[in-house]
């Protein structure tokens, strides 16, 4: 079961967030290292910011700390829509299945158009 976290965590960088979550869970660096099957020196490196965990280790950290990988990786609002779009996305909850399908297709086409435009504007490598 994923535990709730305090909002201050979202303001922290990954190393501080990891250390804070570990301490909130009452875990020593050694206990966390044992739980995710790495040497304790790796936990020290992650918490000092000297190295970044692999995807596999991030997954294990999320499980051991009972949080989502998103909480470990992303900063506050990094994965959320802009404030001016949130109400519009919330309104989609009232749509029927067909209206949701149409909205998704429209958004997908806009995203594809944007990505194509961005790719075209990137300088060519020689």
What distinguishing features does this structure have?
434 Repressor (Amino-terminal Domain); 2 domains; 0% strand; single chain
Q: How would the blueprint of this fold be written?
A:
Layout: H1 14-24, H2 29-36, H3 40-48, H4 55-65, H5 69-73, H6 83-91, H7 97-121
Helix pairs in contact: 2-3
Residue-averaged pLDDT, rounded?
A: 87
Unreliable stretches covering 5 or more consecutive residues: none
What kind of sheet is the major sheet? none
**Share of β-strand residues:** under 5%
Shape: elongated
Per DSSP E runs of 2 or more residues, the count of β-strands stands at 0
Total number of helical segments? 7
> How many separate structural domains?
2
Order of helices and strands: HHHHHHH
Specify the CATH architecture of the largest domain: Orthogonal Bundle
CATH topology descriptor of the largest domain: 434 Repressor (Amino-terminal Domain)
Q: Classify the secondary structure makeup into a structural class.
A: mainly alpha
Roughly how many Å is the radius of gyration?
20 Å
Describe this structure in words.
This protein has 126 residues and is mostly helical. The protein has two domains: 7-73, Orthogonal Bundle (434 Repressor (Amino-terminal Domain)); 83-121. The protein contains seven helices and no strands. It is elongated, with a radius of gyration of 20 Å.
């Amino acid at each position: 079961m994923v535990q709730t976290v305090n909002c201050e965590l979202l303001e922290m960088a990954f190393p501080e967030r990891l250390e804070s979550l570990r301490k909130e869970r009452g875990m020593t660096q050694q206990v966390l290292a044992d739980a995710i099957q790495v040497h304790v020196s790796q936990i020290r490196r992650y918490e000092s910011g000297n190295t970044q965990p692999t995807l596999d280790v991030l997954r294990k950290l999320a499980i051991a700390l009972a949080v989502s990988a998103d909480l470990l990786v992303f900063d506050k609002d990094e994965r959320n829509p802009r404030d001016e779009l949130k109400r519009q996305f919330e309104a989609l909850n009232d749509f029927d299945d067909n209206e949701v399908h149409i909205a998704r297709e429209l958004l997908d086409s806009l995203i594809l158009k944007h990505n194509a435009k961005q790719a075209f504007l990137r300088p060519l490598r020689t």
